[in-house]
Amino acid sequence: MVAQRIQANYDNLQEILKVFMRHADMTVAITLQVERLVEQLQGGRSGILR
Is 9 within 8 Å of 17 (Cβ atoms)? Predict the structure, then answer.
């Protein structure tokens, strides 16, 4: 049986990593924003839904 060869372009992998990290950061920021909005809605703070 012949072994399969796996090649990786490390420069491209670095760029992909940067994209994933940026998306992860945005996901955290959006999650925190949603959590704050849910707290506001559950707390019934005035001025939110007039």
Answer: no
Integer Cα distance of 48 and 50 in angstroms? 6
Give the C-alpha separation, 47 to 49, whole Å: 6
Residue given tokens 């012949």 in the structure block = 2
Q: Taking the model in full, what pTM does it have?
A: 0.65
Q: Rounded distance, CA 31 to CA 21, Å?
A: 15
Q: Could you tell me if 40 and 33 are in contact, meaning their C-beta atoms sit under 8 angstroms apart?
A: no
Residue 13 host element (H or E): helix 10-43
pLDDT tens by residue, 7-49: 999 999 999 999 999 999 999 999 999 999 999 999 865 555 5
